[in-house]
Amino acid sequence: MVAAFALLACAAPRAHGAADCFRATPDSLAADDCWYTLHIHAVRVTDCCSGVRAADISARQVAQWVEKANEAYQVARVRFEFDPTPQTGDWDAVKSTEINQLVAALPGDPVWEQGKAAANELARHYPGKVLVFFRRGPGATPTGGGFSSDAYDFVVMPEFDATTVCGIIQNIQLFAHELGHYLGLNHTFREFETKAEAAEALRDSKFDARVFDGDRIKDTLPEPYIKELQCSRDESVTLAGVPFPLLRSNVMSYYVNDTKTITPQQAEVVRRTIRRRFADANDGVGPYVPDKRRAYQLVSFESGRVLEAGAASAGNVADVRLAEWIGGAGQAWKVVPLTAQDAGWFEIVSVATGKCLTVGRGESGDGLIQAPWAGADGQKWRFLQKKHGVLRIEATRSGTALTVSTTPAASRALLGTAPDRGGKGQRWRLLPAD
Predict the structure, then answer these.
(1) Whole-prediction pTM value?
(2) Helix, strand, or coil here: 47?
(3) What is the Cα–Cα distance from 405 to 157, expressed in whole angstroms?
(4) Model pLDDT for residues 66-107, shown as the tens digit of each residue
(5) Statement to judge: residues 201 and 127 lie in one domain
(6) Same-domain pairing of 210 and 350
(7) Which domain holds residue 324?
(8) 8 Å CB contact between 21 and 12
(9) Is residue 153 domain-shared with residue 65, that is, in the same domain?
């Protein structure tokens, strides 16, 4: 089974199929001959709550973008991997109008700030991965282009065929470019509409070439990006009598080229950013506070199956079971914070039935039921984030944890609580269901 969270690792180059050689640590990350392996986690976004306006993206198309990114970043000894298996691999679906409408940075704009906050919150559940949202955009037609930054914990991408460049419907280099922003790289250029506009800027600067320097990296030469030249094959442009190279083969240039790469000094920036991003993320431990405004799927880390509320019985009690994800209301849960002496604990309430997740004996003997809120210890839960984004869901009853187990005589997964020993069946993650 593929682990739901793939950790940053250093590895020998895979030219001959070498496997990852050791798990990353702050010291080992500095090794010059170490390759970084990062998993891309793709999230196909729809609106809340009906699931309409789904981004038109497939796992096969994501893999094409990842393949191009690997070509571009091999000079930095960085490899991206992508497992298209739903739920247990690197492929999920999320209903979030806020995220589905993201376009680009608009600081202070309420829609932008809400979407950014929702995306960053979800990224906390994938600390060992690069989280990539494939969204449709806010308009009636799909939004082209993507964006990211080393200030965000996510990358935003369009539908595969929604963005065009030089008459080609899909920009195969776009993902590698946005990954560059995520990994700390800026544009190599300053942007102009025409050659005349760029030449005027050069004269105004008293012929200081730094007027075209977008990233202040020494081995990416100052570059004027001139829109009217984007689709040409020119390798240089002369402005006011001064020649300037066009960095067509650089990932962070806008000029069209069949292949892209980065310079050695850009590679150093990328590797430093990886060390900072993933060392910080993998250290995240302690209490985790879900957003009380959202509904969540409670997903078993091991199987990818979700906690599902059964129909209510005559005794006003309902069973709880694990089921394959279908996205229905029975698989959505609200996490409601308690107060006073129970601060830090939560009710887990079924969206479908309004009943609370309760430690008890259901009709199927699962050890978990739903029942109306009564304030009992078996109805109070808290979330503890372990390393690498794993969640433990702890019950107040004797400090036990929500557990999936199987018996030798039965292949069916059993739900209940057990002492928190860090077992595989006690690992969970939350995904927004609204």
Answers:
(1) 0.71
(2) coil
(3) 38
(4) 999 999 999 999 999 999 887 667 888 888 999 999 998 788
(5) no
(6) no
(7) 286-432
(8) yes
(9) yes
